[in-house]
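hey team, just a heads up i'm posting the complex here instead of the shared drive bc the drive is being weird again. everything in one block, sequence lines first with there labels, then the predicted structure for the whole assembly after. its two chains so it's a bit long, scroll down
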Amino acid sequence: MINNTDNILSFYQKTLEGLWTRNEVISNNIANAESQGYLAKEVNFEDVINEYLTASKGEHKAGVSPDEIKYRIEYQRGLDVKSNGNNVDMEKEMVSLAENQMKYDLASQALKFQLNLLNTVLSESKG
Amino acid sequence: MNFIKALDISANGLYAQKKKMEVISQNIANADTLVTENGEPYRKKRAVITENDNANQFNKVLDNFSKPLQGEGVKVDVITPLEEPFKLLYDPDHPLANENGYVRMPNVDTTEEMIEMLSATRAYEANATVIDATKSMFQKAMEIMK
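-- predicted structure starts here --
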């Protein structure tokens, strides 16, 4: 477990970083809900994380390092463009905001749990 | 993770909506102003909100290679008087009436202003909600080491 600690921690770091960036992008979409010609953006990193997780389960265990996880900011597709050239869907953004917040809570809880485990191991070796 | 930037974007949004509200107030307050400095009736104004796009600034070009498309909030553009015709009111006894008995009234439509005001209020609330969400996420990050 200890060997893997570095990987696990940077994996969590990547996840939190991606979720935080997504929060920024959603904030930007909501702030620009009325901007002329603004096109809504989104962060896509779940796919990359999933690839990493499948790879690290399989035989390529050491193949992928969490440092290689890169999120992408893309334009959202399939939205209706309003007459001022703007395609922000306010309801969708508010839902993503709430969803993203919950995911962030979950990820930070999980990281906290991991760190507690580490702490337990470290304090055992002391005693 | 940049706490200040995340808040900056939403604060930008709040500011833009507040500015919009100011312009609306100005329009409603001047709905009956028949003479302004240039001798014409009052012309309605609008706050135009656009994306704060500084992608072409010299020091941003390299940043944009590493983090493409990440936004920077909004900016409120020049408040443009719209070229809409003045309303005409038939009132021959009015001191400002022209030879046909019509008085030129400001081109402010109070109903339209009310609707604009509603949408600005909602947008303001949405930005305030985002600030709450960002704050609570930051709080969670702070609790990781507790």
